[in-house]
Amino acid sequence: MSNKTYLKGRGAQRNVPNRFLKHVYETRDDFLAYCAIEGEEADSNKTQYIPIFPKTIVNKVTSPDVGMLFSMNPYQGCEHGCIYCYARNSHEYWGYGAGLDFERRILIKKDAAKLLETKIKNKNWKAETIVLSGNTDCYQPAEKRFEITRSCLEVFYKYRHPVGIITKNALVLRDLDLLKALTKDRLIAVNISITSLSEDTRRILEPRTATIKKRLETIQTLAANDIPVNAMLAPIIPGINSHEIMQLARTVSDYGASSLAFTVVRLNGAIGTIFTDWIQKTLPNKAAKVLHQIQECHGGTLNDSRFGLRNRGQGKIAIHLHDLMRLAKNSYFKDKRLPDLNKKLHQQYKDGQLKLF
Fold it and tell me: What pTM was estimated for this model as a whole?
C-alpha cells in the first residue's frame, strides 16, 4: 500500500459528487501536486464542527425492517469513518458529500436536548423507545467536546422515558451514572457494534473508532452494572470479517452481551463507489474477490434496497452467513435475551404526579 495513494486516519479516500447538486467542482490532482511543490497545504484533513438548528429532533422510522420506531441524532456526519456506513448518503441532503465530507464536516445539533424535552412533554406523545442514534454515532469524538448525548440522557431520565443507544465508542462509559439510573426502571438498552477481533482490520475498516479491546471492556462494564447490552455484528462483509462470526459471538457472550444481531453488508447509493475505491487502495489483492462476494449476496449488484432483503442478503453466501449466525446464537446465546423496556412510567412523570419524588 502506497502512502501516496492512501489517506491515513480516514475511511473514505476521496470525496464523491453530491447527486443533488447541479454544479460540481472537482479538484484536479495536478493542482494538488502543484500545492505540494509550492509548500501550500492542499488538504489539512482536519475535522470541522458546524452548528445547525433543526426544528425537530425525534424522527419517526418508516422502514419496516429496521427494528425501531423512533430515532434521534445529535450529530450528522461521523468522524469514526466506517467505510461501509449506510448513513454516509444522508450527508448529501445537507449539501455535502458522502465520502470525506461525511467524516470531516460534522453537523452539531446543540439544541437537541431542548427539542427532545419539548417532544416527550407533548400531551399527545405516548412513550416509545427512542434510539440514539439511528443514523450516526451519538458517542463519536464530537460528543467528548459538546456533551449533547449526555444532555439528552438527562432529559430521558428526568421524564423516565425509554431510550436505546447504538454506538461503537467506549465513551458511553463516561455516562455510566445515568445509564445505571435508567436501568433501575428498565429504561435503557445499549447496542455495541463490534465487527472484528482483529485490530488490523478495525484500523482500516473503522479508523477512528474505539479499539476492539475497549469495546469488549465496555460490554463487560455495562453487563457488570446490569445494563442490557446487545452486540451488533454489523455489517458482516464476505471475505473481510465473515470468517470471524463464531469467534465474535463467543467472545461477546463471554464478556456479558445479552443478545446478538447482525446484518449483511450492502453498499447503497454513493457508498458503492466509496467502498470500491477504498478496498482497491487498502486491500488490492482481495478487492475483486470481496466485491464479487458482496454482489453475490445482492443479486449481482453491490446493493439491494428492497425491505426485508437489503440487510439479509440472498444466495448461497448469504445463506451460509445466516446458518453460521443461527449456530452462534444456539451455541452462545441460547438462554439470553434483552428485556423489554418500561413504557408506562413516563406518563406519570410527564403528568407531574411523581415530581415530589
Answer: 0.87
